[in-house]
Amino acid sequence: MTDTPEPDEIVEEPVAEAPEPEPEPEPEMVRADNVHKSFGSLEVLKGIDLVVKPGEVCCVLGPSGSGKSTFLRCINHLEKINAGRIFVDGDLVGYRERGGKLHELSEKDVARQRRSIGMVFQRFNLFPHMTVLDNVMEAPCRVKRESKSEVRERATALLDRVGLSSKIGNYPGQLSGGQQQRVAIARALAMRPKLMLFDEPTSALDPELVGEVLDVMKGLAQDGMTMIVVTHEIGFAREVGDNLIFMDGGVVVEQGAPRDVIGNPQHERTKAFLSKVL
Amino acid sequence: MSEQSTTERARPEAIKAVPVRHPVRWVSIAVIAVLVAMFVHLLLTNDNFRWSYIFVSYEEGKRGVMFTGPVLEGLRGTILLTITSMAIGIGLGTVLAVMRLSPNRILSSVAFVYTWFFRAVPRLILAILFGNLNILWSRIGFGLPFDEQIGKLFGIDNFNGQFYSIRAVDLLAGFVAGMLALGLSEAAYMAEIVRAGLQSVDSGQSEAAVALGMSRFQVLRRIVLPQAMRVIVPPTGNETIAMVKDTSLVAFVPVAGELWFQLNNISARTFVVFPVLVAAVIWYLIICTILMIGQYYVERHYGKGYGASARAKQRLRNIQVEQGGKITTTGETP
């Protein structure tokens, strides 16, 4: 809960710049300024601020209904925010600011923004009518119009990386949940995103399948991928996270280095939540 | 290990039990056999069927009523009419379904009113109505609306704002009228079928596709529609088969190049009723049977990745792997 640069014992800090004496504008992958979101009269997000630097892994914890998934969906404009600003890699998400006025982006422009943001869903959402390989190849071929042979090579390599090279020709319905989620991760990575959003990626899995998905995510983090992970896996947050935010009731209650927040929570709500989860 | 101890135990004798008897089954088989025999007997021995009239020759020097020239022409017309009106129905129906699900209120209510009207009017009346639509206009074309009235406003009599026009009787009669009546009414039913199909696809699918940066059209074309097809195809098969039969309604438009019109014509000319009806039954049976076979293959195509059979095959393979990797078919071992 201090503003000092991160302690030394965290080894992996791949892209983040070394702390400098004078505060230069640091590169930010995600910046959320006072984000508000309502569904009808129900206010789900009540002013979220967040900065995620390139290469950082930010874990979002909180009880269900705290707005963490909604916040994640706002980052790639699956939900429209009602107030505030979200920037991804310096670009305002979903809008263009011109002459002090906001203009909604066209569908095409929003789609362009989404290309560089990968998302992994709780319920995998693989395309059931396509084989595993086609699932991974679909977006690069159709959206980016890359050459098929090149994409196939990359997709095969990605599937190998998530340990599924033997399942290339299978349909998602023939895979276990853990395997499906790993395909979903490969599918998102095939677009070469600069940011990955994970929406409770292990919540729909049988307990013995959680590990294989978390291992893939760990590998990604070590390779320097910027990630925002909504999760209930405290162990993962502690081990892999560079930053942890705890949300409740649509606000960020507490944030800081994961081991500080988990080991020594300051707020009552954080304490209450952690005591139930741990 | 415990596995070994189980394999070493002697396998007990396979069960050989006397199966349960089903006397009712035997009785019903006997009853059905008798009924079938009676039916075959009727077909073969009753001279009123006049099989030679149907198959061999219905008049001096003419082929059987099923294969005579005008009837084959009519058959061609019926098939053509089925294909064109179903094409209109499926195409327009898909557009209407997408409109109906659009967040734009105007589009969705237009689609609603369309389906309301065409589902509520009987096809037979619609067919006759379309055959008589040319009463409304002498010419049909593209041009300025209210051209004469606007012309009068500026003091010009008989101002003609038409760019291109054609005589209504030429356009809206016979085949075209029948095709439009059937196609437009079919679109209303297809719209509902397609809508049900689109709504059956989990919203997570389009969300995942959108998150990958796909455009709305790409999501529809590549992700949602192919999955909706699984739900859309079986009732569409039904509709197609129903359409084959409903083409006989356009005999009232009237459309001459149509199977039932031609058969009916011969019946009226030769005063032979029953064999002609039997010939019609046989032709419709043949067309519909071919369509049903086609439907089976289309369904199988769109069932990819879902079918219980695909999953069962995979499970079988997995079991084989577990049981020591004896794989004969694909040789794929993990």
Automatic annotation (TrEMBL), chain B:
The chain crosses the membrane at residues 26-44, 79-99, 111-137, 171-191, 271-298. It is found in: Cell membrane; Membrane. It comes from the Bacteria. Keywords: Amino-acid transport, Membrane, Transmembrane, Transmembrane helix, Transport. It is a multi-pass membrane protein. InterPro entries: ArtM/GltK/GlnP/TcyL/YhdX-like, MetI-like, MetI-like_sf. Residues 75-295 form the ABC transmembrane type-1 domain. Pfam families: BPD_transp_1 (PF00528). Its main location: membrane. Belongs to the binding-protein-dependent transport system permease family. This is Amino acid ABC transporter permease.
